[in-house]
Description:
Blueprint: H1 5-15, E1 19-23, H2 27-40, E2 44-48, H3 50-56, H4 61-77, E3 83-90, H5 93-102, E4 106-109, H6 116-132, E5 136-141, E6 147-148, E7 151-152, H7 161-171, E8 175-178, H8 197-207, E9 211-213, H9 221-229, H10 242-250, E10 253-258, H11 260-276, H12 283-286, H13 288-305
Parallel strand pairs: 1-2, 1-10, 2-3, 3-4, 4-5, 5-8, 9-10
Antiparallel strand pairs: 6-7
Helix pairs in contact: 2-13, 3-4, 4-5, 6-7, 7-8, 9-11, 11-13
Ligand TD3 is lined by residues 23, 49, 88-89, 184-185, 214-217, 257-260.
Amino acid sequence: PYVNTKDILEKANKEYYAVAAFNINNLEFLQAIVEGGIEKKSPLIIETSEGAMKYAGMGDPLRGASLFVKMVREFADSLDIPIALHLDHGKNFKYIISAIKAGYSSVMIDASDKPLEENIKTTKDIVRIAHAAGVSVEAELGKLAGIEDNVASAESVLVNPDEAKYFVEETQVDFLAPAIGTSHGAFKFKGEAKLDFDRLKKVKELTKMPLVLHGASSVVQEMVEIAENYGADFGGSKGVPSDILKETVRLGINKVNTDTDLRMAFVAGLREFLQNNPKEFDPRKYMETAKTYVKKVVSDRLELLGSANKA
Ligand SMILES: O=C(COP(=O)(O)O)N(O)CCCCO
Ligand code: NA
Ligand SMILES: [Zn+2]
C-alpha cells in the first residue's frame, strides 16, 4: 500500500532499524527499487529531488510531481509492501507546495543553510501547511560538506545536539536530518571515513524521534570495478563503509538517503551491456543489466539496514 512516510519511520524508530530512501528520476530506477523491496519484503521510501520533478515534468514541476505520484501509487496500491513518496531537499516553496498538492507522503524543507531562527521560521511555515494536508515533514540541521545540490558548502557544519532539541520542539517536524560528517556524491572522504557518532547519540537521546542520514551511499566497490572495466573513471570515489552505516542505525538513524549507489550501479550495467552487445538497440534489453545491478544494490542495502521482512 501507499503510506505516509511517518508511519514507516515511527515503526523503524521503535524497532531500531532503518529504511532506505532511494532517489528516482525515471521508470527504470523505480522498477528496480520496487523489485528489491518485493524480494526483501521491505518497506520502501521513494524520493525525488526538485530537479527530478522538473526533469520528469519537462520543465513543469507540478506535472513532474503528479507523474511521480501516479507512478509510485500504481506500484504501491498493487503490492503488500508499504511504499511512501518523499520530496528530497525541498528548498523552493512552489515545489514543496506542488509536491503536497500532487499527493506526496512527505516533504523535506531544507533551510539548513539559513541561520537557526530563520530555519525554524521557514520550517514552521511548511509544517503548518503540510500537517494540515496530512503530509509529514523532514528538516535538516547542520550542513553536509561537499556539493549540496547547487550550494557548494566547502566544510560541513556538524549538528549541535542542544540546538536540535530546541529546533524540533519549536518546529514539530516529524523527522530530522542531523549533519554528522557525511556529504552528497561519490567523493565523501579524502582520507579515512569518519562520522561523529557522539553527536548522533546525543541528538537521539534529546529528541527520541526518527532521524535521517543524508549522503549515506557506500560507493559499492563491485560496481565501481565493473564501471571502470567498461570505460568509467571513478578514481578517488569513497562512500560510507557498511560497518559505519550499521553503527549509525544502531545509534538511531531510521531513514537512509541513497542516490549515488544506484546511479553507479545503473551506469555500470549500462556500460557493460552496451560494450558487449554492439548490435542491440531495444531499451528493454540494453537497460536490463543496469536494472539488475540497481536491484542488487537495493536488496543488499535493505538487508544491511535491517528493514528486510519488516513490511
Ligand atoms: O542524501 C542524499 C543521498 O546522498 P548520496 O547517495 O550521494 O550519498 N540525497 O538527499 C540524495 C540526493 C543527493 C544527490 O546525490
Ligand atoms: Na530527504
Ligand atoms: Zn541529501
